[in-house]
Design a protein that fits this description.
InterPro entries: DHFR-like_dom_sf, RibDG_C, Riboflavin_Biosynth_HTPR. Pathway: Cofactor biosynthesis; riboflavin biosynthesis. Pfam families: RibD_C (PF01872). By secondary structure, the chain is an alpha/beta fold. 27% of the residues lie in helices and 21% in strands. The protein is built from 8 helices and 11 strands. Strand 6, helix 6 and strand 7 form a beta-alpha-beta unit. The longest helix is centred in the first third of the chain and has 13 residues. The two termini are 27 Å apart.
Length: 260
Amino acid sequence: MASPSHGDPDGTHFTLLGHSRPVDDDGLYTLYAYPPDAPRWVRANAIISLDGGATTDGTSGGLGGLGDRRLFRILRELADVIVVGAGTARAENYSGAQMTVAQRRNRQRRGQSEIPPIALVTRSGRLDRDLAVLTRTEVPPLVLTCADAAAQARTQLGAAAEVLDCSAEDSAHVDPATAVAALAERGLPRMLCEGGPSLMGTFLAAGLLDEMCLTTAPVLVGGSAPRITAGGGQVLSRMQRGHLISDDEGYLYGRYTCVS
């Protein structure tokens, strides 16, 4: 699995990571299984370039490869709910999650619904009725909004979505902890956050991200591409690596969990 570690006098140890054999889907399911005893778990999934860019031409899709898309499908299958900011859903032209027959059977065996819903986080609650995430889906999405916008959103969206009031003390803002608690209380404790940067930054600042699944694409993008997190204040959240794997195209896939 890994070559021997070699230490310098200052105590630093370097280890060359590698795999002697391919990792099949069964192996990926094992590597990315949610902790079985956690009452709730917020996993983030993101992709970056070698120079830290999270997008090309405004979306993350241009950074992906075959292996990244394969892992993307598996992470979605394992999740109870997929959480995404409304702005990202618009920019990436999100539709509802799609599962193959085999994935649906896998989910049924795990006691999950056949299709994980999309949970859209939006402070304004304003969503166009023709958004793909509302019209091209087998299950209505959840809309996580603030108290001030919830009633109007319910009137506007009707049966196309289920609107949840996720405010705490401030009725004009979505409280991330309240949103996470609301999803867990609905029987959706295994959460997959797919961004964008503002939502990731909000969860990070609130100390709600338990895990980061990070794909590093073997490309440089330059320009002013955003990072995977954004926000007003700097947050230092220590992570520990669970694993690091690669593929034939040179992509790296790391799983990191927060250090308590």
